[in-house]
Amino acid sequence: MKDYYCVMTFHSTYHALNFEKVLIEKGYKIRLMPIPRQVSSSCGTAAEFPCQEKEKILEICKENHIEIDNAHLINHEKKHWFTELMKG
């Protein structure tokens, strides 16, 4: 089991569902899930995605006009277990 996973957050459920549809059509393994409690967002739905594909996925979102809130790295092991990928 990995010590971490990545999730994308959205401003609306519509964008989460569109993200899932477009990325699955492009062959990515995407899983919608309730947003982790520690990650703040106006929408209650997040999407788990392959961390190593973050840059390509962000590009696909831009090309397909999918609005995202942020990408997050969720780390199971560390005291500060979550960091935002988009900042820094």
Structure report:
This protein has 88 residues and is α+β, with helices and mostly antiparallel strands. It has one domain: Alpha-Beta Plaits (2-Layer Sandwich). Helix content is 26%, strand content 27%. It contains two helices and five strands; from the N terminus they run βαββαββ. The chain has helices spanning 13-25, 54-63; strands at residues 4-9, 31-34, 45-49, 70-75, 82-84. The chain has a five-stranded antiparallel beta sheet with strand order 2-3-1-4-5, covered by helices on one side. It is globular, with a radius of gyration of 12 Å. The termini are far apart. Mean pLDDT is 83; it is low at 78-82.
Topology, pairings included?
Blueprint: E1 4-9, H1 13-25, E2 31-34, E3 45-49, H2 54-63, E4 70-75, E5 82-84
Antiparallel strand pairs: 1-3, 1-4, 2-3, 4-5
SSE sequence, one letter per element: EHEEHEE
What percentage of the residues does DSSP assign to strands (E)?
25-35%
Give me the secondary-structure category.
Answer: alpha+beta
Q: Bin the helical content.
A: 25-40%
- The coarse silhouette is globular
Strand element count: 5
Main sheet specs: 5 strands, antiparallel
The assembly state of the depicted protein chains is single chain
Pfam family, one: Se_S_carrier
Protein name: DUF3343 domain-containing protein
Domain Putative Se/S carrier protein-like: 5-72
